[in-house]
C-alpha cells in the first residue's frame, strides 16, 4: 500500500472548528468538525481536537500525518499562542502549539491568525500563485488582513502585523470592539454594513426593501439582496462602504505596494455590487504613481475551504 | 601604500547634491558638492557628478571606488530611474543608473528614494542596528518613509512602497501636491505645519510670538522657537500636528508592526516639543495589542550626513 503524506489544516472559528486532511497539492482528502463554543476550557477543547485527529489516522493507515497548521483569531505565529481573542470563550493566553504537541507528540504544529492563513492559502492554492507582494482582506464578522512582502508573510516584530481592519478611518467615528473609534472594521465588516443600514434607514426617508425586515434581524446578506434588486438605499450603503474601504486600501498600497489586493469573506458575496464602486473609489484615492497598476479582485479560494487550505499551506510551506 | 575600499554615497536634493566618500564602517572620509538646480538637463548634471568623482579618485589613489549609492526623490530601486520627481527640474523618467554607468563604466550604481536610503542608513550606521522590523519617517519639506520588514527594505511590487506621507488623514482635507486631499504630508511636513500656523493664527485670536513674523515668512523653525518659549498658539500647532501624525503612525503599526519608528528631518529638530505630544497620541491611538510595545524615537543619524550615509549603506549592504 502506498502512503500519502498529508497535513491537518485546522480553522478555529468562534462556533465551529473545521479540520481538513490536505495533501501537498492542496486537495482536501477528508473533513471533520468539532464544536468550539461548547468547551469552557481550552485544554478540553484541544484534547477533543487531538482525539478526533488520532482516531482518523488510526483508521486511515494510507495517510501519514506530517504536521498540523492552525488558523485562529489572534493566533500568533511566533509564540504559538492565541492571545486575547475577543470572539473565543477562552480568556487570556492559550498556549496552542504547546498543548497540541503534548497531545500529539512528535507532530510539528504551527499557528497563525486566520487572515494570515487565508493569505497563505491564496498564495499556494488560490489566485496569488507566484505573487511576491499582495494583500488579502477578509470582510466577515470582522475585517482581517494578511500582507505578503518579498514573498513572505509580514508578521512584524511581535507576530501581530496585518491588522488593516483596525486602521482608523475616522478617529471620532463609530465605537469599535477594540476600544477605539472609527476603525475600518466598524464600516466594512458585515456588522459594520448593518450599522450603516441602521444609519441610512434613519436619515434617508425613502422607501426600501430593508424596511420590510425587522431592524434587529437585518444582515449584510439582506443588504446585498436588496441592492441586487436595485434598491437605492441598499446601493447607497454599498457605495458608502466601498468609499471607506477604497480609501483605506489606497493607504495600504502606500505602505507595501502590493501587485494585487484580494477580497474575501461574506461581504464579498455581493460580487459586482461591492466590486464596481470599490474599484472606482480605490483608483480615485490611489496616489498617482500607483493608479491603474494595482489589481483588486476576489479571492480564488473556495470560501468554505479557504481557512482550512490556508492553515494547511502554513505547515506545508513554512516548515 | 595600503588601499582603502570606499563607496560614494550621493544625496540628490532639489537644490544641492552631496557626495560623500564612505568606508565600509560608515565613516565619511571626504565630501563634495554639486549644485542640482543649475542643470536644465539631467545628462549634463550627471556628467558633472561623474567628473567630480573621477577627479577625486585621480588625486586619491589611496582609495578604491567599489560602488555608487544614490538617494533621490522618487528614485526607484528596481528600475534605476528617477520617475516624475516633483521637486527636481528634470521632467519624466531619468535613467540614472544607466547614465552613471555610461560615465563611470565598471562601477556598480544603485538608486533608491531618499527616505529608503535614510532607513538603510539608520540600520547600518544609526540607531536601528540589529532591528529587523522598523520604520523611518522623514519630516522635512515633505513626509517620506522607509519601511523595513523581515530585515529587508520594503520596495513593493513596483519599487514605490513606503509612501506613508501620502496616506490619507482626511479625504476632504488640505490640497496635497500629489493631487489628492488630506495626505499626512499636508499636515506633518514643515510646510504642513506652516499651513497649520496660518489656520491657527486666523481662527485663534490670542496673542502669539508668531504674529511678530510676516505671514509669508513663517517657517516650521519659527513655530518651534515660539513653542520653546511657551507660546500657547505655537504649542497648539505642535499638538495638532502630533495628533495627526500619531494617528497615522498607529495605522502604520497596524500594517507592519515595527519594533521602533524613527523620526527624522527638520521638523524633528523641535525635540521634546514634538515628541512628548506625539508619544501620547501615538499610544492613545495604537491598537491594544501594540500599546507600550512600539518604540518611538528620533533618528540616530547626524542630520546633515544621513542621506549620504544611507546612500552609502545602499551600495555597501545590498550589493
- In terms of quaternary structure, the protein is homodimer
Structure annotation, total helices of chain A: 9
> Total domains of chain A, how many?
2
Query: What best-fitting shape of chain A do the alpha-carbon axes yield?
Result: globular
pLDDT averaged over residues of chain A: 95
CATH topology of the largest domain in chain A: Nucleotidyltransferase, domain 5
Secondary-structure element pattern of chain A, one letter each: EEEHEEEHEHEEEHHHHEHEH
CATH architecture of the largest domain in chain A: 2-Layer Sandwich
Tally the beta strands of chain A: 12
Q: Termini distance of chain A?
A: 27 Å
Class per helix and strand makeup of chain A: alpha/beta
CATH superfamily of the largest domain in chain A: ATPase, nucleotide binding domain
Summarize the biggest pleated sheet of chain A.
5 strands, mixed
**Low-pLDDT windows of residues of chain A:** none
Biggest interface, which chains?
A: A-B, 43 and 43 residues
Strand order in space, largest sheet of chain A: 3-2-1-4-7
CATH structural class of the largest domain in chain A: Alpha Beta
Percent helix of chain A, as a range, is 25-40%
- Measured by DSSP, the beta-strand proportion of chain A falls in 15-25%
Q: How large, in whole angstroms, is the Cα Rg of chain A? A: 20 Å
Amino acid at each position: 500500500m502506498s502512503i500519502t503524506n498529508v497535513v491537518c489544516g485546522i480553522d478555529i472559528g468562534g462556533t465551529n472548528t473545521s479540520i481538513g486532511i490536505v495533501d501537498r497539492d492542496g486537495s482536501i482528502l477528508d473533513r471533520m468538525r468539532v464544536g468550539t463554543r461548547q468547551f469552557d476550557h481550552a485544554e478540553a477543547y484541544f484534547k477533543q481536537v487531538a482525539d478526533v485527529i488520532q482516531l482518523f489516522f488510526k483508521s486511515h493507515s494510507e495517510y501519514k500525518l506530517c504536521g498540523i497548521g492552525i488558523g485562529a483569531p489572534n493566533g500568533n505565529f511566533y509564540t504559538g499562542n492565541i492571545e486575547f481573542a475577543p470572539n473565543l470563550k477562552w480568556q487570556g493566553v492559550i498556549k496552542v502549539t504547546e498543548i497540541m504537541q503534548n497531545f500529539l507528540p512528535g507532530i510539528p504544529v504551527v499557528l497563525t491568525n486566520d487572515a494570515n492563513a487565508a493569505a497563505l492559502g491564496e498564495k499556494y492554492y488560490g489566485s496569488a500563485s507566484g505573487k511576491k507582494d499582495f494583500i488579502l482582506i477578509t470582510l466577515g464578522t470582522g475585517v482581517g488582513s494578511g500582507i505578503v512582502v518579498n514573498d513572505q508573510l509580514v508578521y512584524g516584530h511581535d507576530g501581530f502585523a496585518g491588522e488593516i481592519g483596525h486602521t482608523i478611518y475616522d478617529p471620532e467615528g463609530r465605537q469599535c470592539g477594540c476600544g477605539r473609534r472609527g476603525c475600518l472594521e466598524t464600516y466594512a465588516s458585515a456588522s459594520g454594513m448593518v450599522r450603516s443600514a441602521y444609519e441610512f434607514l434613519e436619515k434617508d426617508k425613502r422607501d426600501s426593501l430593508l424596511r420590510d425586515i425587522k431592524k434587529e434581524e437585518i444582515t449584510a446578506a439582506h443588504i446585498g439582496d436588496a441592492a441586487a434588486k436595485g434598491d437605492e438605499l441598499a446601493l447607497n450603503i454599498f457605495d458608502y462602504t466601498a468609499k471607506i474601504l477604497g480609501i483605506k486600501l489606497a493607504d495600504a498600497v502606500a505602505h507595501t505596494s502590493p501587485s494585487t489586493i484580494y477580497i474575501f469573506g461574506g461581504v464579498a458575496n455581493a460580487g459586482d455590487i461591492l466590486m464596481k464602486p470599490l474599484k472606482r473609489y480605490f483608483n480615485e484615492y490611489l496616489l498617482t504613481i500607483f493608479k491603474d497598476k494595482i489589481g483588486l479582485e476576489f479571492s480564488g479560494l473556495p470560501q468554505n475551504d479557504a481557512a482550512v487550505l490556508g492553515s494547511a499551506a502554513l505547515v506545508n510551506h513554512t516548515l
